[in-house]
Amino acid sequence: MEHPIERRDPISGHWPAARDSGRRVFAHYMVGLTCDQQPEHWAHDIGAAKVAGIDGFALNVGSSDHWTSTQLDHAYGAAEDSGGFSLFLSFDMAAGCWSVPQVADLINRYQGSSAQMMVDGRPLVSTFEGPDWASNWPAVRNETGGICLIPDWSSLGPHGVGQRLDLIDGAFSWDAWPKPAQSKMTTVEDLLYKDNLQGKKYMMGVSPWFYTGKSNPNIILGRFPTPAKPGPDLPQWNKNWYCSSESLWHDRWKQVLEVMPDFVQIITWNDFGESSYICDASPAQVVKGAEKYVSGHSHTAFRAVLPYFIAAYKSGSAEIDWRGQDTAIAWYRTVPVRAQGHNGTVWGQGGTVSAAHGARDVVSVLAVTKGLACITIAIGDSRRVTFETTGRNPVSYFELPFDQHATGPVSLALNGRTAIGPEINAWCGHGKASLNAVAIHI
Fold first, then answer.
1. For a disulfide at 249, which of 110, 208, 387, 414, Cβ 3.0-4.6 Å?
2. What pLDDT does residue 341 have?
3. Contact in structure between 364 and 332 (CB atoms under 8 Å)
């Protein structure tokens, strides 16, 4: 089956919305991090998301945050002013207790907004977990006049979700990272969801990175650090794991083009504490403790390749007439994993193997080009490699391994343009351990 070719609008420069396919790409936005956030911040984030080709935000809301209604008003107001950007509520069922009136009231408050994402004439609604709350959704439907419910009940797995099809209109999978002690994602879980949903809508999760861990205060004795007793960076959550992410952004988007789900949700826009963010730096949104591994670790560059992937996804084929600018991104850790204390960080959620056995020290490079191109990646003066794209496929992926002997700023060059990123250091001498990445782009 041939798919229509989508082209960038010559006046606006934007890629067209997928009116025929109905496919949309959203980003998961943590409203719980927005206390005192001003409308201008929402307008900035919406503008940045639109430039990347993202269609809207899934607004994660908790039951007890006093700023929820104020911030939702700001978000919907900014989206209405912007136009062409959709929002929908994602009720965080793991963050407090919700009542039926509370959920229904929020849905009713915003379902008339021009920015509300509608599916088949009904407001789209999602969740983070909450299968134990499932029996309440029929009452919510009655009080709201109907919704399109696509929850994340990933704790049930595809088969468990498939046993509750009478309550839902589709499912969203939070399964966006490799499992414990695994280096790569597969599409096995995605295909199981599609099979078990029996034609109902599937929303696929995609993420660039995952790390949340413990600090490593060092006592400097001479040249080398001696680790002191580690303390938790985020004491309010019992989390200390890293999911293999060296090639994840590339792998997962290629899998989107294989699976072709009804919707895609990027996890996340702004969850700094779990290192999965792709937004611009926003110190006010960084939970206390996470700044130790977030500061200086920009993820903005991950967005640079989204226009191609989203356009291809919406067209239904990777074979699109790509007219965008050649671009490349690189992401890496700034200290070799074995040169820093990992403080019990495990490899994958629920894993038992140390993350030091799974994390690979590489500079990952992802490029989108219209034809043959040479990409040079260098680490200081110690290591330099030039890769050549094939020209047969717009997407190219490369890796440059490094160790404690390869140090210095990272440079990325393409078509006469160069980007310089933070230095790779031989050891962690700034009082913290971090398996987070920094990303750069040209």
1. 208
2. 66
3. yes
Which tens digits make up the pLDDT trace of 111-144? 999 999 999 999 999 999 999 999 999 999 999 9
344 CB-near residues (< 8 Å, 6+ apart):
214, 230, 240, 354
Domain contains 8: no
User: Average pLDDT, stretch 89-102?
Assistant: 96
Final residue of a domain: which of 315, 339, 370?
315
Phi, psi angles (nearest 5°) of residue 331: -140, 150
Quick check: is 158 in a domain?
yes
d(Cα 57, Cα 26) in Å, to the nearest integer? Answer: 5
Q: Give the global pTM.
A: 0.91
How far are the Cα atoms of 89, 100, 151, 172 from residue 165, in angstroms, in the given order? Answer: 20, 20, 11, 13
Please give the structure tokens belonging to residue 369: 């080009």
Cβ count within 10 A of residue 258: 10
